[in-house]
Automatic annotation (TrEMBL):
This is Outer membrane lipoprotein carrier protein LolA. Pfam families: LolA. The keyword Electron transport does not apply. Keywords: Lipoprotein, Signal.
Amino acid sequence: MRRRRLLSALPLLPLLWPPAPAAAQGAPPALSARDRADVQRVEAYLNALTTLRARFIQIAQNGATAQGTALIWRPGRMRFDYDPPEPLLLIANAGQFMHYDKELRQPSIVPVGSTPLGILLRERIVLSGDVTVAGVQREAGLLRVTVFRTASPAEGRITLVFADNPMELRQWLVVDGQGRTTRVTLSAIETGVRLERAVFDFNDPRFMAGPVDNN
């Protein structure tokens, strides 16, 4: 029962833009010259990122936790394997994002563009235009950049958290339109690693059952 309660608290919360409430949020404050410079640094870092492998721990608003292995292959590919007993698998590829329950063998597919982390998978990441920077914060060697979809500010926001020197993606937080927060923290981060294209294939049974090990 605890596993199912945990499961119900977790699916897609760190990844999907949440439904919009009735009232929109106010306009973000203007960015300073330093803020704009830091946003450009973040863009440069993300655009230079090709592959990433890391462990993650996810904490939902109600305190429920899960962990697993994350893979990113820019542009366009992402995979999150949740450790047992959670039977979740999340894969992004070819413009689609699949949420898969390994026990029920049930997939659910949405456009990558409907997910906050879809921003990271773009071929060219520009944090302006259809994406608005809501704020830039600096604290204890960390740089936080909060963004939302310009056309739908009431949907929610995602905050990307980076180690500042050297720059490295460490965490993201999704806040939905009702103010509920889901936090995902990365550890054991490796970048520039060799990944197999097939692990991002929705239909390859070899890679649908369990965690991926490319060592």
